[in-house]
Design a protein that fits this description.
alpha/beta, three-stranded parallel beta sheet, 12 helices
Length: about 280
């Protein structure tokens, strides 16, 4: 996601044509979740435009289409995956990892299908898998089997940390709507590869979001000290302050790891005026 109505005129200029919206977002953050590819595979012309709006080291994590992960459950997917891979090819190195988000019904009994799918992905692409079945978190044996499947494919296990969000009852309309849709799973902080990816969901109250990410600061700092290159996505139910919160998280990690390069200072969303 790189466009949000509440960001316009605040984080990004307004009005802003669609062809410039990713460029405006990239002035604030150097990574983004490519969630739109879950619902429809873009044309190569579209991804060419995304590449033109971002630097070569920008990290876009495109989600594998739901036709592949949810409808066909990773089986008989050669044609849609070929179309998806052709679509992301113009991104070049910006396609940081292919994000395989699996449905909550995809459990330990489905690991053979996941292993076959990961083996068939081109070696040029990193792979990142998000699972939501409770069995992978409650059963140590299932977790070990999943880790082995991922390790064999040099794939990362993407944690979706919703523990802060579910700590107290919802307080806003966006929180109430999100309450029914997001998984309630334990926090997981173990990295399997050199490129871990974290998805963190806070609250619409920025202070609660900051308080909830404190455990991640030491985890991410530790990964950096080990020579890993993590990517962290910060969400809230309404995402009103998400770019500012993401930048704050980055700065709090930098306070622990001074060698981490700062994010670039974004230009003002609106031209300055004298009055």
């Amino acid at each position: 996601m790189w466009t949000h109505r509440s960001w316009q005129g605040r984080f990004t200029p307004h009005p802003l044509p669609p062809r410039d919206r990713l460029r405006a977002y990239a002035a604030h953050c150097n990574a983004v979740e490519g969630n739109t590819t879950f619902y429809a595979t873009p044309t190569p012309a579209t991804t060419h435009a995304w590449a033109a709006q971002t630097a070569a080291d920008f990290r876009l994590v495109p989600k594998v289409p739901q036709l592949v992960t949810h409808e066909r459950r990773l089986t008989d997917v050669a044609a849609p995956m070929r179309a998806f891979l052709d679509a992301v090819a113009p991104l070049g190195p910006r396609a940081h990892a292919l994000w395989v988000q699996l449905p909550a019904s995809f459990g330990p009994g489905d690991l053979a299908a996941l292993a076959r799918f990961l083996r068939r992905l081109p070696a040029a692409h990193r792979r990142a898998v998000e699972v939501r079945h409770p069995g992978f978190f409650a059963d140590p044996r299932a977790a070990r089997l999943l880790e082995q499947v991922l390790a064999d494919a040099d794939a990362e296990w993407v944690p979706f940390d919703t523990t802060t969000f579910f700590r107290t009852p919802p307080a806003t309309a966006a929180e109430r709507e999100t309450w029914t849709r997001k998984p309630r799973l334990p926090r997981r902080t173990r990295a399997l590869t050199a490129h871990p990816i974290v998805r963190y969901l806070g609250r619409d109250d920025p202070a609660a979001t900051v308080e909830g990410w404190q455990p991640w600061l030491e985890v991410v700092a530790g990964w950096l000290a080990e020579g890993r290159s993590p990517t962290v996505f910060v969400h809230t139910p309404d995402n009103v302050d998400a770019p500012a919160l993401a930048r704050r998280f980055h700065e709090e990690v930098r306070a622990r790891v001074p060698s981490l390069a700062p994010l670039p200072e974004p230009p003002p969303a609106a031209p300055s005026t004298l009055f």
